[in-house]
Design a protein that fits this description.
With 96 residues, this protein is mostly helical. The protein contains four helices and no strands.
């Protein structure tokens, strides 16, 4: 028997893994528009979005990487460049 899917007429290896998801009108409309604009199937767009969300590299992002991306590194303004490593700045910290 020749099975057909939304993957260019070829049954994909994901045939046994289907889920149903409820979408609001705005999101559903966005998927339809993007599919039409890119020439991709709606299911392909959803799979790609899920793959991007659960990407292994993304899970390996460090706190430093996130802080750098958000512009938090060096956000304290005019401070000494060795503030985090020079013990002299901690001498009176916590006293009083």
């Amino acid at each position: 028997m020749n099975q057909v899917s939304d993957n260019d007429g070829i049954m994909s290896d994901m045939s046994g893994s289907r889920i149903s998801v409820r979408l609001d009108r705005k999101l559903r409309s966005s998927i339809k528009r993007r599919a039409k604009a890119t020439g991709k199937k709606e299911a392909q767009l959803v799979r790609e979005a899920l793959e991007k969300e659960f990407d292994v590299e993304q899970a390996q992002t460090t706190c430093y990487d996130l802080a750098l991306k958000l512009g938090l590194i060096g956000a304290a303004g005019e401070t000494p460049s060795d503030l985090s490593t020079n013990k002299k700045y901690m001498e009176s910290f916590g006293k009083e």
